[in-house]
Amino acid sequence: MKPRVRYAPSPTGHLHIGNARTALFNYLYAKHHQGAFIVRIEDTDVARNVETGIASQMAHLRWLGIEPDESIEHNGAYGPYRQLERLDLYTRYAEQLLEKNLAYKCYCTAEELEAEREALKDAGDDKLHYSRKCLHAPHQDAPYAIRFKVPENSTWTFEDMVKGNVTFHSDDIGDWVIMKQNGIPTYNFACAVDDHLMAITHVLRGEDHITNTPKQMMVFKALGWSPPVYGHMTLIVNEQGKKLSKRDGAILQFIEQYKDLGYLPEALFNFIALLGWSPQVEEEIFSPEALIEHFDARRLSTSPARFDQTKLTYINNRHIKMLDSEALKALCLPFLEQANILEGKDESFVDSLIDVFRDRLSYGSEIVALYHDFFQDNPELSSETQAFITTIEGVRSLLETFLRNLDERTEVLTPDIYKEIIKETGKTCGMKGKNLFMPIRIAASGSMHGPDLPKMMHLLGKDTLKRRFVRLLQDEDIL
Question: Which of 17, 127, 149, 321 is deepest in the core (most CB within 10 A)?
Answer without folding.
Answer: 17
